[in-house]
Amino acid sequence: MRCLPGALLCAALSLLAARPAPAEEVTLISRDGTVEIGGRLLEFDDGIYRLDTIYGPLAVNADAVTCEGAACPGAEARVARFALSGTPALGDVAMPALIEGFAAARGMTVERAVDGRRGLFRLRAPDDGTLRAEIALTTGSTGEGFADLLTGGADIAMSDRAILPDEVAHGREAGLGDLSASHRRRLIALDAIVPVVAPDTRMGDPGRGLPYATVLSLLTGEIVDWSRIGGTKAPVTVHLPRPDGGLGQSPETRLLEGRAAVPSARQHADAAAVSAAVAADPMGLGLTRFSTLGGAVQVPLAAGCGTRLLASRQGIKTGDYPFVVPLFLYVGAPQLPPLARAFLDYLATPAAQIAIRRAGFADLMREEIPLARQGDRLALAIAEAAPESGLAELQRMVTVLRGAVRLTETVRHGPETDQALSQAGIEPLARALETGTFDGRTLILAGFADDADGPDADRALARKDAEAVRDALRAAATAADFGRVRLEVVAFGALLPLACTGAHADDALPEAVAHRLNRRVEIWLR
User: How far apart are CA 268 and CA 237, in angstroms?
Assistant: First the structure.
């Protein structure tokens, strides 16, 4: 008899007490048939065999072995089952593609079925068709996903926002612990809310963009004719996705600032339907998602001082576009089947992230942005530079960042969603530090602040934020060798703003939105 290799052992357990019913001998054989181990089967639970062997108690992942013996659990007991429920932003396109990719990566085939509102994905072994897993997928809304999580109708909630405080409280009451903890949350992809018009729109030139206040006035009915903003004399038709679970559930309503949309707004089943309707309506204006633009034309948002904000893959990753929608998975069950845990791990792989990009979302793979690509931001910085010391500060900034590239990970302070995104950016940086990705190089943690309290106070706040990111990285990267990489903290205060808040108030973003854009810690690599 040969001992199973370490990859097949889940853990060395403390001594397990046998159940009153007599345990029987079984033999576990590796999938390639080269190794086997025998022992008394103490328990089979969540895809784990627990045996009493001559080596002591062992736990073995059922995915890695076959079982022989009268006490082996039946085929039905060995099927891994878990359920996902929540936002159609993930459930309609991305999640089915990810399940298919996961199955292919593990050499399994996928059989689709429908059970009422749920889609079922049955994963089978390719050689004999043995059912290995059944994944249930229900799409409704983020709120419904969390409700299913709390009632046991789902193991994983698909969410297009950070979990709300009352949902966290209900989770504790349901015995699920703290669902807001970072280890219960997986950021899967990024999306954004964007205003769109038809290619032959009556608004005039969509490329010039619209001030945020104008977009808001169009959506709420304060402006009802395109001629009011320089377009053709034609009535404005507003198109919006139908809010599932109330307006407060829809990320699209972030652009409305809590105000009601015009009563005549046409509501559609989802963001993709909005894009299709707007693309066919020259008098239309809609809110849709970056991932479902289709034939509609994105309208840039004026950010003051002549700047425009346009959603792009890199702009969404950095958070430099203001209306980013994070797509999370929240895990409810404290112990998922091993295959479910393997699926969650798969979602962070390059193969899964490529599938996410192909589905139209902004993926989470790190990208590098050279200093030479910062032209618009540098132009705004020069225009807004303080006469007495601004240009000298700009020269200092260019000197520090020359030869470096900006990484798409960016840390911001703000609401819960911004904090969740920032934490999701720190974690991969910490893992990269631990694996030596940045060995021999310098990570520049560049703090920026809004122009609020004067140059000295702005720089002090920016430095405090950058130092906090440095400390968070050191705390998260416990296995990193910081003797092989340098973390450099710099503070540039109100230099390099993304949104202008002073000189051109009519074109400016709301103060809170501009503040969140401008106060940030960028990560540069040299």
Answer: 13
The structure's pTM equals 0.80
453 pLDDT band, cuts 50/70/90, is confident
Question: For the chain, how far is it from start to end, CA to CA, in angstroms?
Answer: 54
Q: Distance (Å, rounded) from C-alpha 356 to C-alpha 363? A: 6
Both tokens of 157, joined, read 């909630």
Please name every residue paired with 196 in a beta bridge, in sequence order, or none if there are none: 286, 298
SS3 25: strand
Tell how far CA 398 is from the center of its chain.
31
pLDDT digits (tens, 9 = 90+) for 319-349: 989 888 889 999 997 678 888 989 999 999 9
**C-alpha–C-alpha distance, residues 466 and 473, integer Å:** 11
Please state at what angle helix 390-401 crosses helix 375-384, rounded to 10 degrees: 160
What's the token pair of residue 307? 């700047």
User: DSSP for 469-481?
Assistant: HHHHHHHH-TT--
What is d(CA 519, CA 330) in angstroms, rounded to the nearest whole number?
Answer: 28
> Which value, in Å, is the radius of gyration of the alpha carbons in the chain?
27
Pairwise CA distance, residues 78 & 80, whole Å: 6
Residues 6+ positions from 526 with CB-CB distance below 8 Å: 403, 404, 405, 441, 442, 444
